Amino acid sequence: MPITVLVVDDQELMRMGLKMVLGAHPDIEVVGEAENGATAVSRAKELRPDVVLMDVRMPVVDGVTATGRIVDAGDGCRVLVMTTFDLDEHALGALRAGASGFLLKDTPPEDLISAIRSVAAGDAVVSPKVTKRLLDRLIAEDPGDMRDPRILDVLTAREREVLEQIAAGRSNAEIAEQLYLSEATVKTHVGRVLTKLGLRDRVQAVVLAYETGLVRPGG
């Protein structure tokens, strides 16, 4: 079965271009499009695509709000946000709302296709290092948007260490080297961290590590 995609962007030319790029791959099928967040939510509910390719700055309902509504609906749609700037605060809002990651709009077509395949398979495609840089800037500017650090009390000391390493943007292999563990053990710890904290992927883990103060901007 092909990966089904809903294309959401307020610019018709952008939607047309994305559909042409995606349509050239037999394992991807564009099942619909939307020009704003409100339409995106209703079309996602109707079509239940595997991936929603979401613009963030749109009229009527913005992409951040639409992302939250789509994710909260629980229909299994995963959202991949596209933005113009890599330090766009709207992209961070979309990640907090449950997006599986974000890409720049000037991403090469082959990288876009790879990202859609990864998201459909349940992975996050945004680099944690990019998310870390985004959080560094925004939390330094607005430290009031924090969460109760006691939510991390469910983690063991080792799991907290692993979460700190994830927040630093390190891969499982790099964490294994840093903590003198096997890569399989690190993978197990990462899975437990995500499960205990109710997180979808590593990107949300990075966000939470910052919002609880486990790691600090510039740290």
Question: Please, what is the average pLDDT?
Answer: 88
Characterize the main sheet.
Answer: 5 strands, parallel
Strand fraction equals 5-15%
Radius of gyration: 18 Å
Helix count equals 10
Oligomeric assembly: single chain
The total beta strand count reads 5
> What structural category do the secondary elements indicate?
alpha/beta
Outline: globular
| Stretches with pLDDT under 50, minimum 5 residues | none
Return the string of H and E elements. Answer: EHEHEHEHEHHHHHH
The rounded distance between the terminal residues' Cα atoms is 44 Å
Which strand order spans the largest sheet, edge to edge or round the barrel?
Answer: 2-1-3-4-5
Helix content: 40-55%
Overview of the structural elements:
The chain is of the alpha/beta class. It is 51% helix and 12% strand. It has a five-stranded parallel sheet with strand order 2-1-3-4-5, with helices on both faces. α7 packs across α8 (172-179) and α8 (172-179) crosses α9. It is globular, with a radius of gyration of 18 Å. The model has no long low-confidence stretch (mean pLDDT 88).
